[in-house]
Specification:
By secondary structure, the chain is an alpha+beta fold. The chain has helices at about 40-50, 90-100, 105-120, 135-150, 165-185, 195-200, 220-225, 230-235, 270-275; strands at about 5-15, 15-25, 30-35, 55-60, 65, 75-80, 155-160, 185-190, 205-210, 210-215, 240-250, 250-255, 265, 280-285, 290-295, 300-310, 315-320, 325-330, 340-345, 350-355. The chain has two domains: about 5-225, Rossmann fold (3-Layer(aba) Sandwich), CATH 3.40.50; about 240-355, OB fold (Dihydrolipoamide Acetyltransferase, E2P) (Beta Barrel), CATH 2.40.50. The chain has nine helices and 20 strands. The strands form four sheets. It has a six-stranded mixed sheet with strand order 6-7-8-3-9-10, with helices on both faces. A five-stranded antiparallel sheet has the order 13-12-11-14-20. A five-stranded antiparallel sheet has the order 15-19-16-17-18, with no helix packed on it. It is elongated and about 80 Å long. The structure holds adenosine-5'-diphosphate and magnesium ion.
């Protein structure tokens, strides 16, 4: 049972504030992913929770107890870093057993703990090897084993698979997920890779310049981004964002993106949902899969010209020009034959997002 809470946490390095009023509650057994660009404060947050870094304001609570004044070793939290830092002169067995030796656990208990962890991580046959004889993925498995073996209250992982090549990263991602399902334990995992975050997290915490942007399940942050930063950070290819105005037209709402000769048809309900923002300039967001592309003209579809077509195997990403405005659409592979082709497209209202251009905040429209 471990629950971690950050209350009003602030951290400065000299005059630079790198964590700004961070509030976050992590439940027992939860897998939380801290996601953000390099330099946004992820590692600092993790180190503060582990006790490797002091904080300037606020509280860090573990199971309701403030721990910000406790030493790292008194917090019972394990951390795995990107660099494996295994002891090169020790075998895999000795590396994993090392944290238990420090607790003076007896030989038989140590042995069964090491073997159990090795079994879970599927590295039993490597126990007699030295780190120099291991692949990158196996080295990271050993590092995770060493962190897990003493059954810490929580696991903190800082870009643990960032240094591995793409195929191995995918494999290790699945492995870490399997391990979490099997072992449980409250986990905070740091990455700048949104795909890793989406695939691993119970909840994703998105940070930007030391400020928490949104906390939510992968589905929530994808379907309902709280602001323009999250909208463009999560999802690949990135969400289209265009300056737009909304007006009433023949009993419906029309959303006209800058540069386009006509408006996209939306249900009239949009006008009410916008709550005074109708008529003002705002930002429209739509992911490529939110554009519906057709070969024939139909009600609500606007003409467009295909520009660049990116074949991605199971689907294509097609740049469509609506007058001067370019929006990227996702189509069945080969649906648009060649650049220059004329097609028709509409925006699926359920997949449209509206943001205040100035503040970047979502206007919370749900159609
Ligand atoms: N020990 C330090 N002294 C001064 N500045 C630091 C120190 N550690 C990190 N920083 C700065 O704090 C900011 C956040 O860093 P970090 O938490 O490592 O970000 P992330 O892990 O998200 O890439 C960065 O601007 C970084 O340069
Ligand atoms: Mg970092």
């Amino acid at each position: 049972m471990t629950q971690i809470e950050l209350r009003g946490v602030q951290k400065f390095f000299g005059a630079v504030q790198v964590i700004k009023d961070l509030n976050l509650r992590i439940e027992d057994n939860e897998f939380i992913v801290l996601l953000g660009q390099s330099g946004c404060g992820k590692t600092t947050t993790l180190r503060a929770i582990a006790g490797l870094e002091t904080i300037d304001e606020g509280d860090i609570l573990i199971d309701g107890q403030a721990v910000q004044h406790l030493k790292c070793s008194d917090r019972d939290i394990a951390m795995v870093f990107q660099s494996f830092s295994l002891y090169p002169h020790m075998t895999v067995y000795e590396n994993i057993a090392f944290p238990l030796r420090a607790t003076r656990m007896n030989r038989a208990d140590t042995d069964s703990a090491v073997r159990e962890v090795a079994k879970v991580l599927r590295i039993t046959e490597l126990l007699d090897r030295r780190p120099s004889a291991l692949s990158g993925g196996d080295m990271q498995r050993v590092a995770i084993g060493r962190a897990l073996v003493r059954r810490p209250k929580a696991m903190l992982m800082d870009e643990p698979i960032g240094a591995l090549d793409a195929k191995l990263r995918e494999e290790m991602r699945a492995e870490i997920k399997r391990l979490h399902i099997k072992q449980g334990s409250t986990t905070i995992y740091v990455t700048h890779d949104q795909i890793e975050a989406m695939s691993l997290a119970d909840r994703i915490v998105i940070m930007h310049e030391g400020v928490l942007q949104q906390v939510g399940s992968p589905e929530e942050v994808y379907a309902h981004p709280a602001n323009l930063f999250v909208a463009q950070f999560v999802g690949s290819p990135v969400m289209n964002i265009a300056s737009a105005t909304v007006a009433e037209e023949k009993g419906k709402a029309a959303v006209t993106v800058e540069g386009a000769p006509q408006g996209f048809a939306f249900p009239q309900q949009l006008l009410g949902s916008l709550n005074g923002s109708a008529g003002r300039k705002l930002s429209l967001g739509v992911r490529p899969e939110g554009l519906v592309v057709a070969h024939e003209a139909a009600d609500g579809f606007l003409p467009a010209e295909a520009h660049i077509i990116e074949p991605l195997g199971s689907y294509d990403i097609v740049d469509l020009k609506f007058g001067e405005q370019m929006l990227r659409a996702r189509t069945r592979s080969g649906f648009v034959a060649k650049p220059g082709d004329r097609v028709f497209a509409r925006i699926d209202p359920a997949q449209a997002h509206f943001f205040d251009t100035e503040s970047g905040q979502s206007l919370g429209v749900r159609l």
